Amino acid sequence: MKNYKEEIAKAIAGNLPDMELSEIEEAIEIPQDSTMGDYAFPCFKLAKIMRKAPPLIAKGIAEDIAGNPLFEKVEQVKAYVNMFISKEEYTESVMEEAIDEDNFGKTDLGHDRTVIVEYSSPNIAKPFHIGHIRSTVIGNSLYKIYDALGFKVVRLNHIGDYGTQFGKMICAYRHWGNKEDVVREPITTLLGYYTKFHVEVESHPELDDEAREAFTKLEHGEKEEVELWKWFREESLKEFKRVYDMLDIQFDDFDGESFYSDKMQCFIDELKDKGILKKSEGAQIVDLSEFDLPPALITKSDGSTLYCTRDIATAVYRKEHYDFYKNIYVVASQQNLYFQQWMKVVQLLGYDWVKDCVHVPFGLVSLEEGTMSTRHGRVVFLEDVLNKAVEKTKEIIQEKNPGADPETIDDVAKEVGIGAVVFQELSNNKIKDYVFKWDKVLNFDGETGPYVQYTHARCASVIRKAGKDVVAKAEKLDIDYSYLKSDSAFELIKLLHAFPGVVVEAGEKYEPSIVTRHVIDIAQAYNRFYHDEHILTENEDEKTAKVALTLAAKNGIKNGLALLGIKSPDRM
Ligand code: ARG
């Protein structure tokens, strides 16, 4: 696609001898209100260098470029040069890219460099709750975005599968455990054992010693303990994978904390050698007071390692193993301080590449009262939320469209219901806390997933009705662009033009909601076009042009939703 800001910068550069081309390009604005032009150049900062009143500078530029074929019209308004682009040429350059479904929105910024995205990372034998969904869907979207930007992305799930709690779990299982229950409902059952342990230990403190002993044996690789732990891990993973399947989310590996349990000693030694490690009441710490941070705990007084110890080992391993360009951690903002601490330790070890480790934090989700009845006490399971979303969506579809095909309704309800939850998760700026409400998530007319998907299905329906011949012509862009000059058509075209840049921005800011916002904008613009204009007209050329724009809008929506990890059904 033609870079219009660059073209415009070249066109006005002659009037601005003291400015670099890139500076001019950066200063060019896209007015909110398109009656002020498709692009505008503000001159008020130039008074000093040019020793001229800004409106006069603007006037000079406007007069100079008025005849340039790039523009349909150029106006000087106060200190601004407002430029209206020649629509046909612009539209042609946008349509050439937007018509190509496989590539629209992709760029090759990455040059195959490796980016790690670590996301989801639930804890074994603990519920995968609604809070975990954020890490899972934000991370999955960042993976898709970086993939579209031409990076090689490694998707890691840093499972919480290590630590002294597994000693307690083993001990609890030995006392009160039952194999069938674990297999049937692993997480709830194991969680139950863990809770029981904490109740029982109050009156039987010897349980604590037993648990500690079990963990030590686990750490030393004793067969029985290792087998039990492995089995807990496998059963829990099976349950997690059910949720990942529902969301259609994959990982390249599930090596979590336990994977690093034998990779810590060397850097503990290194910390010691470099004189960074301090003893404190039997524990070993790194004092970070100089950086205004609490100390990082490296080993406990009984010698056992911690979450932090494993994260340091993990980062070093990843650098050696993947030589990453970026190593992204999608982890809740509650761990902000913790991430600063361990990253500081890595920096103290002398590893400058720690600057390429990025913590991408996000805020909390809470559920509106009455959103879910809970199966087990107060914890809401993600799987239940997704199932409920699908169920409710099916009801809405049946109500809206009593003739919905019973053969496909379940598949559609799944794509729409799950898509709605994911879309909602990715709608807000990720750092904000928010409240999950069904009315908001499943509103087919609001700024929601179902609304955007519905618009996609509307495009698909227009395309079906247009017939093969028209579509074939439209796909070849064998069209007369003069039919796409109305305001509503051109607003849509401008949004399509911006789409690849939006993907870049979302990647740079680690913010999928920028893509979410943009697909809503495209969907709204298409609906305006659909209502304002007669698309399937008698005039073949006009029809072909408008169907081509429909195809382009469909591609923008579909590829945008795909970057969020959401499907685009052709019928709803
Ligand atoms: N398992 C952790 C939790 O649920 C998240 C892990 C985050 N990743 C990391 N490298 N520390 O809180």
How is the secondary structure organized here?
Blueprint: H1 4-13, H2 21-27, E1 39-42, H3 47-50, H4 54-65, E2 71-77, E3 80-85, H5 87-98, E4 114-118, H6 130-148, E5 152-156, H7 165-176, H8 179-184, H9 186-203, H10 206-219, H11 223-247, H12 265-273, E6 277-280, E7 283-286, E8 296-299, H13 307-322, E9 326-330, H14 336-348, E10 357-360, E11 365-367, H15 382-400, H16 409-425, E12 434-436, H17 438-441, H18 449-466, H19 468-475, H20 487-509, H21 513-532, H22 540-564
Parallel strand pairs: 4-5, 4-9, 9-10, 11-12
Antiparallel strand pairs: 1-3, 2-3, 6-7, 7-8
Helix pairs in contact: 1-2, 5-20, 6-20, 7-9, 7-10, 10-11, 13-14, 15-16, 18-21, 18-22, 19-22, 20-21, 20-22, 21-22
Bound molecules: arginine.
Arginine binds at residues 118, 121-123, 158, 160, 311, 314, 329, 331.
Please provide a written account of the structure.
- The protein starts with a helix and ends in an 8-residue tail after the last helix.
- Helix 7 (165-176) packs across helix 9 and helix 13 crosses helix 14.
- The chain has helices at 4-13, 21-27, 47-50, 54-65, 87-98, 130-148, 165-176, 179-184, 186-203, 206-219, 223-247, 265-273, 307-322, 336-348, 382-400, 409-425, 438-441, 449-466, 468-475, 487-509, 513-532, 540-564; strands at residues 39-42, 71-77, 80-85, 114-118, 152-156, 277-280, 283-286, 296-299, 326-330, 357-360, 365-367, 434-436.
- It contains 22 helices and 12 strands.
- 54% of the residues lie in helices and 9% in strands.
- Among the domains are: 4-85, 2-Layer Sandwich (Gyrase A, domain 2); 165-247, no CATH class; 266-304, no CATH class; 382-564, Isoleucyl-tRNA Synthetase, Domain 1.
- With 572 residues, it is an alpha/beta fold.
- The strands form 4 sheets. It has a 4-stranded parallel sheet with strand order 5-4-9-10, with helices on both faces. It has a 3-stranded antiparallel sheet with strand order 1-3-2, covered by helices on one side.
- Arginine binds next to helix 13.
